[in-house]
Design brief:
Elements lengths: L4 H15 L7 E5 L2 E7 L6 E3 L9 H24 L12
Antiparallel strand pairs: 1-2, 2-3
Helix pairs in contact: 1-2
Length: 94
Amino acid sequence: MRVTKAVLQHKIDYLNRLNRLTEKDWKLSQAYGGYNVVRVVNAKSGETDLFRHQGHVPAKELALKLSAYLNGYCQAKDDVIEEGHYCERCGTHS
């Protein structure tokens, strides 16, 4: 399956909805023939990447990493809800 920029953007939009981010949303960065997920972290436009120092990678590789990250995130969120704990980051509790 061919992974397009739109597919990557859809995954990043989903990540931002899960985190309820507004000001410092994760964004798709494209450079050096590859892609990365970044967000601005200071007033001088410094960026951090989601997968810590991986650099820009091919679209398919980033899509696989994002899928694994999102699956793990959702699984952890479900575990928190099942145990009846409040998750401040997600804003959920049971």
